[in-house]
Every structure is written in C-alpha cells, then in structure tokens.
Amino acid sequence: MNFKTKIKAQASKLKFAFGKSPIIDSIENYADYIPKPYKTVVIISADFELAWAWQWSKQKDALDLAIQKSKNTRVNFPKLMELCERYNIPITWATVGHLFLESCSSHKNLAQLANFENDYWRYDKPDWFMNDPCSNYKDAPYWYAPDLIKQIIESPVEHEIGCHTFSHIDCRDSVCSPEVFNSEINACKKEAENLNLQLKSFVHPAHTIGNLDNLAKLGFTNFRTNNRNVLTYPKKHSNGLWEFEQTAEFVYRKEWSIDYHIYRYKKIIDRAIKSNTVCYFWFHPSFDAEMVNNILPEVFKYLDSKRDEALIISSGNYIDYLNENDR
Questions:
Q1: What was the pLDDT predicted at 327?
Q2: Rounded CA gap, 327 and 325, in Å?
Q3: CB burial class (10 A; 0-12, 13-18, 19+) of residue 292?
C-alpha cells in the first residue's frame, strides 16, 4: 500500500467517524416515505453483468479482465443466494439483458452505439458485439446466465429482476440515441416477458445517466444515481420516475480490516434508523470474495436483527408502495 493510498483510506475513516459520509439529509415528515411502524427502509441492489461490463474497459487486457470478473460472479453467486435465503434479504438484481439468453447467433437486429469514450471505457471498434461468442450458456457461461436468473426467480426470497440495459451500454444522451436506447431496452423487456417478469427498476451502466424520458415511457418506475453517498429519500421527477441516491457500496477495500468493514456497514444501518431515512446499498457480485465470505454474513445477520425497525424491500416494491400511497 503506497503512502497516498494510506492517507486516502485514513481520511475516509475520519470523514465517516465525524458523520460526514454518508451525508444525512432527513426531513421531519419522514412518514411520507417510511411505512409505519418502521424507522428506515433498506434497499440492496446488484449490478448483475458477468463479462459485459468490462469488455471495453480502459484497463490493460480488458477482455481478460471481463472474463475474470464473470468468473468471480459465478463463484460468489451461490454464496450470495444462500446468505439472502438464510436472512431473508431481497436484492434488486439490475440485470444485463443478454444474460437472459440460453444461446444466441447474432444481434444484427439491435441498433448499436457509435464509437465513444467515457471515464471508464473506450469503444473504438467496428462492432459493439464483436466479443459476444454467439454460443450458449453451457459453453460460454461468462456471457449468458439463464441458470442464475432461474435461481433468483425460484428463490423463496422476494428478489426483483431489474434492468441494466441489454449489453451494458453508455446511456448518456450525448452518446446514446433514443433509437439505440429503445432497441436495447425493448430487447430486455422481451426476454423478461418470456419469463413473466415486468421490469420496473433500472440502473444505468457505469453511472451514465441519460434517456430518462425514454425510460419512463418504457414503463420503468425508478433508477439509481451515484452523485453522492447519502441517507435520504427518493425524489420523483416530472416524468414519473423516482430517483434513488446511493448510500454506500458493498466493496472490499484492502486498506481496511474485515472488522472495520463490518463495523462501518452496521453503523450506516444504525444511522439510517436514527435519522428515519432510506438506506440504499449496492454492489457488484464480482467483488472480492472477502465480502461474501466474511463481511456480508455479519452485515446481513445484523440487518435481520433490526427487522422490527428496518423494512428490507426491493426497489420496485418500495416505489409501488409510494405510488399507491400518492407520495
């Protein structure tokens, strides 16, 4: 660990200790957002991507990295599902639509992005789908996941399948035309409908917020942003969409001990209860195995112990509650 990394890690701890992160943005009439008799609402979402998220990364050997991230997800997934079932913790799985497929041969029917660059990716190739193996989930399990989606659907826990676009695209208005966006999302909706699923919750890949009016027209009710880490309440846009602001990411930081990770996430839950705010955790299932082996078991156990005070619910079900109660 270099000196700069140590200083950054220590600064983050100090900021947390003094209550500066996450920010607490509460209101007196919190009952408009927190159903009785609870004191907080806790939502957990996962960016469920396999190899699709990293193929155009600016990091070295991006395709190899994408495959490794996918391998991590498949190793972590059964442990995550077991934890969720042990403690009855629902997750909103923001799912890349291609993962629904058992197999594919071509995606020429989909509109594609032109070349672009953002903070995380550089796409300068002739075909967005050039890395797609056009195979099946048994021979290429890092690009398809109908087997994992089936486990989510059949779980006794009330999980939600959300949307993360069909192929993990940049959704910014300056990059993604309505034609491309609608093509991607309609492909997701088609695959979901084949499983009798209605997609309500959306997460923009790599936080590339855009096409919000199109998202509302396509029947979605909510999306997530990462402009700040905050304990607050969802905000309703004029197009009917509700915006969730993230509270914290479940991610393993080598600069912190296992015990500190556990302490920090538990303390965030305590602060959410004390401030009567909505707590929104999120994660990548490709995270370090320390998270699922040593940290989340303690965090989920603690969250379960607070069930009388904390309503643990999916994004879509919570927004249904708000809309039904004219919030």
A1: 56
A2: 6
A3: buried
Measured CA to CA, the distance from residue 238 to residue 144 in angstroms comes to 36
State how far the Cα of 53 lies from the Cα of 205, in Å rounded to an integer: 8
- Hey, what domains does the chain have and what are their CATH numbers? 3-324 (3.20.20.370)
Predicted local distance difference test score (pLDDT) of residue 4: 80
Helix (H), strand (E), coil (C) string for the chain: CCHHHHHHHHHHHHHHHCCCCCEECCCCCHHHCCCCCCCEEEEEEEEECHHHHCCCECCCCHHHHHHHHHHHHHHHHHHHHHHHHHHCCCCEEEECHHHHCCECCCCCCCCCCCCEECCCEEECCCCCCCCCCCCECCCCCCCCCHHHHHHHHHCCCCCEEEECCCCCCCCCCCCCCHHHHHHHHHHHHHHHHCCCCCCCEECCHHHCCCCHHHHHHCCCCEEEECCCCEEECCEECCCCCEEEECCEEECCCCCCCHHHHHHHHHHHHHHHHHHCCEEEEEECCCCCHHHHHHHHHHHHHHHHHCCCCEEECCHHHHHHHHHHCCC
* Partners of 282 in the β-ladder: 45, 249
Q: Look up the pTM and report it.
A: 0.97
Crossing angle, helix 296-305 and helix 258-275, to 10 degrees?
Answer: 30
Residues 6+ apart with CB under 8 A from 186: 218
| Phi and psi at residue 282, to the nearest 5° | -150, 165
Using the CB atoms, write b or e for 254-287: b if 16+ within 10 Å: eebeeeebbebbbebbebbbebbbbbbbbbbbbb
pLDDT of 5: 81
* pLDDT digits 0-9 by tens, 190-239: 999 999 999 999 999 999 999 999 999 999 999 999 999 999 999 999 99
Q: Are 85 and 156 in contact (CB under 8 A)?
A: yes
Q: Which residues of the chain have pLDDT under 50?
A: none
Identify the burial level of 130 via C-beta atoms within 10 angstroms of its C-beta, where 0-12 means exposed, 13-18 middle and 19 or more buried: exposed
